[in-house]
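Researcher: Please translate sequence to structure tokens.
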Amino acid sequence: MSQALVRIAAVWLLGLMLAVAGAIVSINLVNDSIAGPQQPVREYLAALQKGEGEKALGLLHASVPHSNAAMLDGTALQTAAARISGVTFGDAEDRGGNQVMVPIDYSIDGSQLRTEFLLERSGTEWLFFHKWSFVPAALPLLDVTVVNSNEATLNGVPVNMPSGRNSFAVFYPGEYEASLNGQFFSAPPTRATLSGRDVPPAPLNLLTQATDQLKNAVGGKVKEFLDSCADEADKQQKLQPDCPFYHATNNRVIDGTIDWSITEYPAVSIEPFGGRWVVAPLDGKARIKARQVDLFTGVVTDINAVHDFSFTTRLDIDADTVKLTPLLNY
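Model: Translation complete:
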């Protein structure tokens, strides 16, 4: 009986030892996987891709500097993370003081990038499983400027740009694209890729330009003004009308023969200057036809002359209304 009991006890002891060994292996596997330092990083990246800014901020334990928060949630955040692909997690590297660095490699628009996250052990769960959390730090800032505009679009979201500039708190990694697509003014998109908190993103500077719609509107008003001016000069039979063009002669022009026309309309160029938009000097050509009498000989001849002219204007834009005021020097 004693030998049988010994054998039974040995079997139970062996089973217990195998169970303990299995438990230790299981605990190590869990600590290296779902309880490893890579897990908070996985959760953080998932929150970015879902546009869950509040969750991402809580996981990152990050402070938000004084700035515009438009990029920290929803569509803007999802867009920032949408181009991240091919993510691979590297092994955690010990940094001392219960801290580790977890690297991830990935690509954005074909560019290979790496981001390093610093985490620290923050306790255990169920006595055996490690808890890891990000080492707190401030979010980076993305500076955006736009020429002569108080608004822009950043990651598909309209944003205010007081005095043409603003700073946005942003998550990382991600890509941020600014643009301006207005009725009268636009700027081509410009992008900045952010791979880490310690590498500040390049500022996004939007170089605003007048749209073809605005140029066409201004060009139409210039043409309307010049045609009207020429017609009025014909009605009044003036060689020197209240227009940018005139004709001078020492002969007597026969009344009723004066005919003004515009042979070359000015090309319109609209540029920023001094915080507003100005139309560059408008240069064109006008033709005058008339008959004149030489005061000394009495000979009647034809006038058929083309004159260069130039004038400036003041451009005022109010919502959808374009106003052009010619500025003539008489």
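Researcher: Any highlights?
Model: Residues 112 and 158 are 30 Å apart (CA to CA).
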